[in-house]
Amino acid sequence: MAKAVSPAPPPTDPVELLSTPLARSGLAAGATLRRAGIRLGFYDVRDLLFHLPRRYDDLREMRKLGDLLFVADGDVISALATVGDVRVEPGYRGRIQRTIARLEDDTGSLDATWFGRRFIERRLSVGSQVVVSGKIKHFGRRLTLDNPEFQVLAGELGETELLHAGRIVPVYPLTAGLTAIRLRAAIREALDKAGYAYPEYLPEAIARTEDLVPIARAIEEAHFPASFPGRDAALRRLAFDELLALQLGMVERRRQRVRDAAPEIRVEPAADAAVRSAIIGAIGARAGAAVEMTVDQVVAIDAIRDDLSRPTPMLRLLQGDVGSGKTAVAAYALAATARAGLQGALLAPTDLLARQHLETVSALLEGVGIGVTLLTGSLKADVKARSLEAIASGQASVVVGTHALIQDAVSFADLGLVVIDEQHRFGVGQRGALEAKAGGRSPHVLLMTATPIPRTLGQVLYADLDVSDLRTPPAGRVKIRTGVKRPADLDGTWLKVREEAALGHRTFVVVPLIEEGADDGDGAVAAESESVRLRALLEPLRVGMVHGRLKPVERDAEMTRFRDGELDVLVGTTVVEVGVDVPAATMMVIEGADRFGLAQLHQLRGRVGRGSIESFCVLVTDSTDETAMARLRAVVESTDGFALAEKDFELRQEGDVLGLAQSGFPRLRIASLQVAEHRELAVRARQHAEALLDDAGHLDPRYGALAAELSGGWLKRVAAAEPASGA
Fold it and tell me: I need a labelling partner for 120 at 20 to 30 A (CA). Which of 73, 269, 612, 700 fits?
């Protein structure tokens, strides 16, 4: 019989303990922490130390029990008392078991009650002293506390320090099987065994310039602060470090990229004029009137022309409002590349959008004799084979496609430009796979997005690329009349839908969920149930439905039916935000509008008004929240996506700002770009990052401690995070 192997003892060196898995750490709750950590995202002792509180409760003021008679109902109090009695009342007829402790001091008494919390009576012995904190309730002259935090003085899990009451108490994210008391005790133990020895990695000059506390002190005060100023100083240090790691990654990628070789694409004046003229002519033909490019389009094209002529790869973001003419600018870049004898590829997130780009770009470039080749997964085998052959031979100078472009079977003869539409829909790996098809050199890259980012965030989010903004809408674009309505006041709206359908016009109806209860149970209207309801309500109008759980082929087919006039109404989730261009769509009804960000609302509204017909957007909400209503009023009052970006940033206090998550920007754990001080920290972190890295984007050997932290410490996740631009 094989001899059992004893597990290795936990490390005694505190620095080594930091990287030790929780199950082998020797911490009292190691096994519980290991199971909980799988769900909460901590795996070793270092991870545990950076599982930071989500808030702090100030429970420092200790009150006499007799004084609590004069405290308002619901106020949070802390008190030091003696346990006079403990009893457990079993549940019956569906009631939950409860434990009741009589707490006393020399001025009075109260009852503390815990519902459904087993074994509490084992920790509360008669005669022991306890610090208790919770919301006070009055029943005449009788006082109670329901489910209060408490800590027995002396002996509680071996603690000698107040952790759970009578101090500034950290409140952590929890999961099933892990209690607040056990987690606080475990973090206290980890701090005592290893936190004090966390290696300092920040260069002394930076810490001094930014007035930052040492990292070990920051970790301690972030969990168990002695004061709120101490906590704030700790979190400021950790926020700076997080932003520095992010900026180091951006500077590194940018400097490494500019060292790469790219084809020099020079556009002669005659060719430049011919391409611009052809694009303007195509836009005018579609509009039915003579048009000119907007000033923003001209400035963007000039910048792209200059970028293409350099031997270093362009990395530019074209940030344009809905309908601002981004595709025309991209068409210029593709034409310039093709006329130089190289290939350009435009990557779109969906089959339908790729086909739409095929039609648009083909029309824009027809005047200069440049054809466009399509490559998507839905092409028939023989058509796909011909496209692959044309791409490989170089015959296809401009290629539009979906993820099919990045498959191994695709080989470009001489790829010089990559255009990525709705860049946030693609990961770095996908974008890199397409760029890699340029062979041994780097192609020029143009990223496009219809989600403007607030100006105050741009220098942080897009610090590793150049940005062109298209703010001016094309001439002749119809204004979309926007209003807010309550769900009970929609009779007129549905009548208007019928009237528009009689004129051959079409309506989008957007809802926040796929099916009832799919994401949350707060009664938000779901696509499936709403499509059934509207088919009955609007009969005989033809009502279709799309959402993200449909197969892409099914979703694109339904959108195509809507575009081609086979459907009058299309009910969907935000999958309609990007995609079909339907000039005949004149109405957008957004139900549960308060549940959407301003960016989504603005982009959804941009699905209508794309022709010359007066169009309407109805924002439906039953919310009475003033901030939510202010956001909806902002959409009513403005059709400027950039202005709405600033407004959304101003109004939102927490959560995703104007599609920040969509931008590809990594989630920060401590820093918040909605905090003015943190935005200032980000700018200064950028300056430090520029100084710390050499021309090749490498850290000077003098900063070995910082390099070690970025590769193996708590900052490694930020340092390795995907950049907003995908550079």
Answer: 73
Helix 598-605, helix 641-651: angle, nearest 10: 160
Same domain membership, residue 273 and residue 214 = no
**Beta carbons of 611 and 584 less than 8 angstroms apart:** yes
Residue 493 sits at φ, ψ, to 5 deg, of -65, -45
Tell me how far the alpha carbon of residue 701 is from its chain's centroid: 34
Backbone angles phi, psi at 399, to 5 degrees: -125, 135
Which domain covers residue 62, as residue numbers?
Answer: 56-171
Residue 684 lies in a domain: no
- Same-domain status, 134 and 216: no
Share in percent of the chain as helix, strand, coil (round to 5): 45, 20, 40
Q: Look at the alpha carbons of 387, 725, 449, 416 in this order and tell me if their dihedral is positive or negative.
A: negative
Closest CA to 491 of 499, 503, 479, 480: 499
Residue 156, pLDDT above cutoff 80: no
Cα-based distances in Å from 482 to 56, 175, 470, 612, 686: 42, 43, 23, 17, 41
- Rounded distance, CA 84 to CA 81, Å? 9
Residue 27's nearest CA partner among 134, 178, 170, 231 is 178
Distances (CA, A) of 515 to 144, 524, 575: 43, 9, 15
pLDDT in tens, 427-436: 667 778 888 8
Q: How many CA atoms lie within 13 A of 81 on its CB side?
A: 30
Binning pLDDT at 50, 70 and 90, where does residue 649 land?
confident
Q: Phi first, then psi: what are they for 339, rounded to 5°?
A: -70, -20
Q: What is the pLDDT of residues 95-104, one digit of tens each?
A: 678 899 999 9
Asked if residues 570 and 559 have their Cβ atoms less than 8 Å apart, the reply is yes
pTM over 0.70: yes
DSSP string, 269-289: HHHHHHHHHHHHHHHHHHHTS
Asked if 286 and 206 sit in the same domain, the reply is no
Opening angle at CA 221, ends 216 and 226, nearest 5: 135
Q: Rounded CA gap, 147 and 133, in Å? A: 9
Residues 154 and 290 in one domain: no
